[in-house]
């Protein structure tokens, strides 16, 4: 009883509340001032034709096409989320710091540990808000979509407010979708943790040297600590999925034209591993190319086939597929009968589209996107997760690209 009273007295204090409100207010003001630059950064990631332009030119383009509100689209929910996020983080950090304070004062190691714990608490509490914010920010990134793509985009980005987005995602995609980015966010907790540790260490150094902690000094210390944290944690943001066994070994078509069946097979391998098997398997399992050769309608074995028809076959069978080990050996020759020994399907959606740029905005809304490009410019999208470029010849070897 005495222990809980002491913890309550240290955790729920006026000083901790002031730290939390100050941190939240500072972050909100900073974001309000620099939000147009953040909008440009986001647009560069999903739109073509802007990379070679200056910041001023890009701002002018957005204002001409979308009005002044275009550069501030999504600001309100971002500020709400940012305020909540920083309030939770600073309250957690300073509250924990007060609870675990000692007579020996503070140390860099203790600050790093407490900042990490505060970061984890912040991620768990506020991730749903950032999921909605990321989607809302892309509402204006239409680029040069066709009518069908604009229809798809309108269906995806229809949130009127932060609360509306939270409710809509919960109803249409389930509660798990609200925390879909939790794992990568937890990995990146190290960034603010290191930043805060360096900041506190520099601040203590200034106090030791008798340097007054003015607003300018605090700003400089914050900038230095952020740069150090970004440099140290940047490698965590770069992932090569080849090192995670995301892709299966390259398939050998032999002296044959059956490579048309490789594309949909490898797409389904990546989607299956990304959505389902990665939780229970460490390596993506090979699916049967021979199964598609035997079962898809427009298939002539070594003489060619239709990738789109193969994808349509997978749609008709509810995205069910056969493991290579459970089907007939690969011969590239179409058998007279189709062996439908299928495994349970993964959480995959398929539809149609005609625009490659659409995939760039979709990657913001879905954790995994798989594309199959070829040498031709025509593109068809299968729903919200798989894109496939139409083949003009059965001799064209297609390539699978997966990205988060």
From TrEMBL:
Q: Does the keyword Disulfide bond apply?
A: no
Q: Which UniProt keywords apply?
A: Membrane, Peroxisome, Repeat, Transmembrane, Transmembrane helix, Transport
Q: Which SMART domains match?
A: Pept_C1 (SM00645)
Bilayer topology: Multi-pass membrane protein
GO MF term (any one)? ADP transmembrane transporter activity
Its annotated compartments are: Peroxisome membrane
Peptidase C1A papain C-terminal domain residues: 235-404
Membrane among the record's keywords? yes
- Where does each Solcar repeat begin and end? 14-99, 106-205
Give the UniProt entry's GO cellular component terms: peroxisomal membrane
Transmembrane residues, as ranges? 16-35, 112-132
Q: Which ranges of the sequence are coiled-coil?
A: none
Q: Biological process (GO) annotations? A: proteolysis
Family, according to the entry, reads as follows:
Belongs to the mitochondrial carrier (TC 2.A.29) family.
The name of this protein is: Peptidase C1A papain C-terminal domain-containing protein
